[in-house]
Design brief:
The strands form 2 sheets. Strands 3, 4, 5, 6, 7, 8, 9, 10 and 11 form a 9-stranded antiparallel sheet that branches. A two-stranded antiparallel ribbon has the order 1-2. The chain starts with a strand and ends in a 12-residue tail after the last strand. The chain has one domain (2-130): BH3618-like (Roll). The chain has 1 helix and 11 strands. With 146 residues, the chain is mainly beta.
């Protein structure tokens, strides 16, 4: 599958690597198929690139790489559409944003991906987690993530 993107130019994505988000993402309900791309210059960063809209790409990271004690509690009803039966089937990423002072992570609404079924969903986690967790310039050592 060939995708023309604003950020990466023309890229080829194997159809078996496409992730399906049956409900889209909040604000992007029309974008239901995505490719998870590695960033060529930053191994901590990934990109969720819409396969149908070349102008839509979201920067994502593994939250534990930047917040080692990040614990996410997700109501089972939020995971039911993903058919996650074993937590090892799931990968959790969070969207990177930008505010007036720097980069932020949306820890409140992570994206959960069922790696086996190739489906994903943005969920709202239980508990007191920030939507704009600010990354400081002095961050803890990076942890290796899957």
């Amino acid at each position: 599958m060939r995708i023309n993107t604003n950020r990466f130019g023309r890229i080829d994505v194997d159809a078996n690597d496409v992730l399906t988000f049956p409900s889209g993402l909040p604000g992007l309900e029309d974008c239901r198929e995505w490719a998870l791309l590695a960033d060529a210059s930053n191994d901590a960063l990934g990109w969720l690139q819409s396969t149908t809209r070349g102008d839509v790409a979201l920067a994502v990271v593994s939250p534990r790489r930047f917040v080692p004690d990040y614990q996410v509690r997700i109501p089972r009803s939020e995971l039911t559409p993903l058919a996650v039966t074993d937590i090892r089937q799931a990968q959790v990423v969070v969207v990177v944003g930008k505010n007036g002072t720097g980069l932020t992570l949306n820890l409140k609404a992570p994206i959960v991906i069922n790696l086996e079924a190739r489906t994903g969903r943005q969920v709202v986690a239980s508990g007191e987690l920030p939507m704009q967790y600010e990354l400081s310039n002095t961050r803890p050592p990076l942890k290796k993530s899957a």
